[in-house]
Write a structure and sequence with these properties.
With 746 residues, the chain is mainly beta. The chain folds into twelve domains: 66 residues, no CATH class; 68 residues, Immunoglobulin-like, CATH 2.60.40; 65 residues, no CATH class; 47 residues, no CATH class; 47 residues, no CATH class; 47 residues, no CATH class; 47 residues, no CATH class; 47 residues, no CATH class; and more. The protein is extended and about 190 Å long.
């Protein structure tokens, strides 16, 4: 038996579509691959591998060895990735870029050879990616992303441009070369002009944009020139003259006010104001002559005897025409007097003072040509026949006769008003008709019922005694006597219940729980109504207890003997409808915030805290006096400021000179030194014991206590004048070396 070949387990990627023939061994020749350790299927080598166990033998000298197991793993192909373009478009301008990012994988392989999850692309091209999984298997390529990098165009060309202000040109009127033009106010402005902005003198910047890429900007100098003032020509001509305007060689014969020749925006307009002096108004002569007379017109010394209407002497355009209006007055028409008199009267004509009593038809007085003839037409009117008025009235009525405005109430037979000869007499025949007797209606109804009286179709519900409809004197009056039987008095039930109870009214067996005031069962007019007055006694108002305690205290409510220590707002004990509820409003007053006293004293001073009248001389941080829950605690923060270091003045003078110390304006001529290695000056009152080992003197403690200042200065300032003599009433100067004990008594 031959030795079996040797082989290791093997892994493949499904995407490689490996065959059995792709399996390898560590050692062995003339290999055969099977599906089982014995028997099974002998593979031809073209079968596609799948995860599982494969068995291999080798054949030497026509002898086949035993088989060994080879475990094969076919790892799955990762899902095809996708690409996202983060933070921008895949189309951009030169100098830009886009970040392409693959979906997650273990490893990455981009079409440009990159092996990171994201790549930054700045060149045009088609980009795809494959990912590997933990088994190292490579996915299919993703859908390619096309990246387009557009070239930034060169700046547009534009020359400096000039405009006239009158043209009101806008940015859109500027004329550069290029496409996708944008104008800006500066070389770095971020916002482009809209194009509607009115141009002004200055520098404008223009770019062009192609394929979304904007070029650098070109500066264009713009000049906006103002329009020149109008050239105004003022001229005057006479009426009917002409004027030729040299500006346009046009002939004018009428007034021209502001005729304008508009030139381009930079050239002054030409304006013509031409005044044509009007011809003076006609000199009109108005004259009147009588028919047959003549009139000589001084304008031409011509005699006229007939009417002249607008006879004209025409003069040139600068001189008024002469006009004659001559009126020849014709003989006036007859003055006709028309008069009428009554039969038997006379008429005196004022024209000739003649009295006439008969009819005159065209009686004439003839006058000369300038005066109208007088004509009289006189009519004598005959007396008219009587005017008879026949009238009838009812008894009690009156009649007013319009002929004399007199009121009549009785019969009149041939009552006459006699008039003059021109007016007919008035005659009245008046008949008075007597009134018929009353028509009386008697009726009876019950209370609440109604009665309709046919005499006037009126409905009555109350007693009517002799109610009358008065008619005119020719018609009988209608009279109504109506009796209404009264309704019995109400049957009233008065009852009282408590809040929450009910009451059953026997009159209608209805149950009531609320107050009823005058609830009525209405019956007919012959039966008394039933009335219910039910009073529901309301529940008494809440008995409210308002109390206040301090924080930490308790309150016992007598209504339920319960102790409370927290705020109670409207705590209620509910009682029945006849008894008031108990309500507790308990306020727990919070303890007030601390009352903090912040104070500062100097070193050596004391501070008396008014809260406890205690004197403090050292720093206190939050020293507390604790009070009850209703009273704020008192807190003291006392700062003791340390005494500053000495202010040392070092000065040197020559022997015989003096030095004025500005600290006390004192003049010194001897050495003044405060130093432990030298002597120091001490001032003492008689009986005091100086201390030469300190910078202050115990001998002047009076000054320190009084003024709280440096002893030496205080002694000087407050009049403790030194004297080298021993005197019981003054101080004396003592000098000590360090370590020495001065004797103020010697």
């Amino acid at each position: 038996m031959q030795f079996a070949p040797t082989a290791n387990s093997q892994s493949f990627c499904a995407g490689d579509a490996k065959k059995v023939s792709d399996l390898t061994v560590a050692s062995g020749t003339n290999l055969k691959w099977y599906s089982a350790s014995s028997g099974g299927t002998l593979y031809t080598g073209t079968e596609t591998l799948a995860s599982g166990n494969y068995y291999v033998s080798q054949t030497l000298n026509n002898c086949e060895s035993s088989r060994i197991l080879v475990a094969v793993t076919v790892n799955p192909t990762p899902a095809t990735p996708s690409i996202s373009a983060g933070g921008g478009s895949t189309t951009f301008c030169t100098g830009g870029n886009v970040v392409l990012t693959s979906t997650s994988g273990i490893g990455y392989l981009w079409s440009n050879g990159a092996t990171t999850q994201s790549i930054t692309v700045s060149n045009s091209g088609s980009y795809s990616v494959q990912v590997t999984n933990a088994s190292g298997c490579l996915s299919a390529s993703s859908t390619a992303v096309n990246v387009t990098v557009n070239t930034i165009p060169s700046p547009p060309t534009a020359s400096d441009q000039a405009f006239c202000s009158i043209d009101a040109k806008t940015v859109s009127d500027l004329a550069p070369s290029g496409a996708g033009i944008k104008w800006y106010s500066s070389n770095s402005a971020s916002t482009a002009y809209a194009g509607t902005e009115t141009l002004s003198t200055g520098t404008y910047y223009v770019s062009q944009t192609t394929s979304g890429c904007e070029s650098a900007r070109t500066a264009v100098n713009v000049t906006v020139n103002p329009k020149q003032a109008d050239v105004v020509t003022n001229a005057t001509i006479c009426s009917e003259e002409t004027y030729t305007w040299t500006a346009n060689n046009t002939v004018y014969s009428t007034t021209q006010s502001g005729i304008r020749i508009s030139n381009n925006g930079c050239t002054a307009d030409q304006v013509l104001n031409l005044t044509v002096t009007p011809k003076p108004a006609d000199v009109v002569t108005n004259a009147t002559i009588c028919s047959g007379e003549t009139y000589t017109w001084t304008a031409n010394n011509t005699a006229y005897s007939t009417t002249q209407s607008g006879t004209r002497i025409s003069n040139n355009g600068c001189t008024a025409d002469q006009v004659l209006n001559l009126t020849v007055t014709p003989k006036p028409a007859d003055v006709v007097t028309n008069a009428t008199i009554c039969s038997g009267e006379t008429y005196t004509w004022t024209v000739n003072n003649t009295v006439y009593s008969t009819t005159q038809n065209g009686t004439r007085i003839s006058n000369n040509g300038c005066t109208a003839d007088q004509v009289l037409n006189l009519t004598v009117t005959p007396k008219p026949a009587d005017v008879v008025t026949n009238a009838t009235i009812c008894s009690g009525e009156t009649y007013t006769w319009t002929a004399n405005n007199t009121v009549y109430s009785t019969t009149q037979n041939g009552t006459r008003i006699s008039n003059n000869g021109c007016t007919a007499d008035q005659v009245l025949n008046l008949t008075v008709t007597p009134k018929p007797a009353d028509v009386v209606t008697n009726a009876t109804i019950c209370s609440g019922e109604t009665y309709t009286w046919t005499a006037n179709n009126t409905v009555y519900s109350t007693t009517q005694s002799g109610t009358r409809i008065s008619n005119n004197g020719c018609t009988a009056d209608q009279v109504l006597n109506l009796t209404v039987t009264p309704k019995p008095a109400d049957v009233v039930t008065n009852a009282t219940i408590c809040s929450g109870e009910t009451y059953t009214w026997t009159a209608n067996n209805t149950v009531y729980s609320t107050t009823q005031i005058g609830t009525r069962i209405s019956n007919n007019g012959c039966t008394a109504d039933q009335v219910l007055n039910l009073t529901v006694t309301p529940k008494p108002a809440d008995v409210v207890t308002n109390a206040t305690i301090c924080s930490g205290e308790t309150y016992t409510w007598t209504a339920n003997n319960t102790a409370y220590s927290t705020t109670q707002s409207g705590t209620r004990i509910s009682n029945n409808g006849c008894t008031a509820d108990q309500v507790l409003n308990l306020t727990v007053t919070p303890k007030p915030a601390d009352v903090v006293t912040n104070a500062t004293i100097c070193s050596g001073e004391t501070y008396t805290w008014t809260v406890n009248n205690t004197v403090y001389s050292t720093t206190q941080n939050g020293t507390r006096i604790s009070n009850n829950g209703c009273t704020a605690d008192q807190v003291l923060n006392l700062t003791v400021t340390p005494k500053p270091a000495d202010v040392v003045t070092n000065a040197t003078i020559c022997s015989g000179e003096t030095y004025t110390w500005t600290a006390n304006n004192t003049v010194y001529s001897t050495t003044q030194i405060r130093n432990k290695n030298l002597k120091q000056r001490v001032y003492c009152r008689p009986g005091a014991e100086p201390d030469c080992h300190s910078k202050t003197c115990r001998c002047c403690n009076e000054c320190n206590n009084l003024f709280g200042r440096n002893l030496y200065l205080d002694c000087q300032q407050y009049g403790l004048q030194h004297n080298t003599k021993r005197n019981e009433n003054q101080q004396q100067r003592v000098y000590c070396r360090p370590g020495a004990e001065p004797d103020c008594h010697s």
